[in-house]
Amino acid sequence: MTGTSTTPTSHETRWRPGGVEVLVAVLLLLLLGQQWLTGLFSSPAWQAGATVFVAIVVQALPFLVLGVVLSGLIAAYVPPSFFARALPSRPVFAVPVAGLAGVAIPGCECASVPVAGGLIARGVTPAAALAFLLSSPAINPVVIVSTYVAFPNNHVMALARFVASLVTAVIMGWLWLRFGRGEWMRMPRRDHLVGSSSFETFRRTATHDFLHAGGFLVIGGLTSAFLNVVVPQSWLQAVADRPVVSVLALAGLAVLLSICSEADAFVAASLGQFSLTARLAFLVVGPMVDIKLVALQTGTFGRAFSSRFAPTTFVVAVAVASLVGWWLL
Amino acid sequence: MNRDVGAVILVLVGSSVLRIAGDGTYLRYVKESLHPWLMASGVLLVVLGLLALVDVWRSVRAESRARRTGADPGDDQGHDAGHGHAHAAPRAAWLLVLPVAALLVVPPPALGAFTAERQAATTVAPAFDAAVPPLPAGDPVTVTLGDFASRAVWDDGRTLVGRTVQMTGFVSNGPDGGWYLTRLALTCCAADATVTKILPVDAPSRAPVNTWLLVVGQWVPGGGTQSETAIPHLRIVSMDVVPAPSNPYE
Fold this sequence. Notes:
The structure holds 2 protein chains of 2 kinds. Helix content of chain A is 74%, strand content 0%. Chain A is an all-alpha fold. Chain A has one domain. Chain A starts with 19 loop residues before the first helix and ends with a helix. By secondary structure, chain B is an alpha/beta fold. Chain B folds into 2 domains: 3-104, no CATH class; 113-241, CATH 2.40.50. Chain B has helices at 3-23, 35-68, 97-104, 113-118, 145-154, and strands at residues 141-142, 165-173, 179-185, 194-201, 212-220, 233-241. In chain B, helix 1 packs antiparallel against helix 2 (35-68) and helix 1 runs parallel beside helix 3. At the A-B interface, helix 1, helix 2, helix 3, helix 10 and helix 13 of A face helix 1, helix 2, helix 3 and helix 4 of B.
């Protein structure tokens, strides 16, 4: 590789061993140990788990790619000042408008955190930016279409998800307006993904978002495959039969699984033993509060913010999802 | 994670998606309708990865040129000749090595008897109350396990009387040393697989678990009707071991 042209004595950091070298070594070891690995994973449970893991990742990939391409295009070609101009000047009205504006930004929650940070940096009122942060990963067309596809026999699920997510986002925006304090939020830093040209910005945003979200998608796939194979069906069945407990159980599962909002509808569809309301709670909570998202929020806005914002969002989301589920499903 | 690793991972993820989409392995995990989307996203990931590699290569070249001319590399090419941390790839991307390893090294097999035996058989009631159409012509007539079970369970076998059917499924264990002719179906991906089971009657022999069989037989009453978990019965006329079909699911 081109690394040979650099002098090993310099304070070169980019080509220190540990990057591509480790990757190549890992893949070589895997290839050499193919026989051994095949033997190790020959038990039917391991194989079924591996199949489910790969299936979740493969199913989600095209949606993830679509999402990061669109988020890259918007980061590159739609100036943040456009959003600042488009919002009403009174914060009370800016919150629902920003919440609805989430429709226009296809992307998963990983993409919406930096966009919301950028909006605040450009002077958008934080309450409106937060409503947008919560709504955009849940109500954008890519997510709604994938929800529609994942529930072929319950198309009203896509509508219920849209309504419950938008209402939750607007309520959270208003709550922040009323009770939120500026000092809880560390002002977001400038986006480092801006390149020398629009295409560069697009390329870097799409690449970064894919690598980031892809990594967290793997965590979700692993957890889900593990649950799929290890947890006896009777356990989930025992919880699934109780209305209140099942809603809380799936809302909690959404937090733990941390699945990208572009893929979570398919996981929800596979949880067939649960009521539609419980699965709606899964779909509303997942894009707003999950382990990876709280980590992203902490990184962008600070811990004082996320430790207050995330638990409140969870409570509001579960309450709204239950009400909407009772009404629509 | 360094940017170069991120770029290589992108290329690897893209090419493993292209590989399973190209050789048909993807049918073990997802439905056929996803094929064009897999191809498109695979190509896009490879292109993004190659562009990122070109970017890394350019900044390394710029840096070594700057070093030769004695300039501070940090001043050259402003945005990307820094110390690699400015826009390092996210560390989470390392996890993408896992699916790449699974797909390129040991692609997991299609789901089979293990999954089928963990689940109750489910024959979902037809969505509409329309009359069940008669079976197409043919003796024997080829049907899916799902179609057969639906006709047997939700239409009391009316359209199956006097017909000889032919089905392809695999062997899974039943209670008391018995076995079922089995087939899994997907809604979206293997995470949501549902199972159809049919109880063989008068089978001449029993094949090992996960063996694929082409079975010819006739419906006989039994196993219950009007229930999602009913398991219809089939009197076996003949059964032959066959290779696994290219699409293992219905």
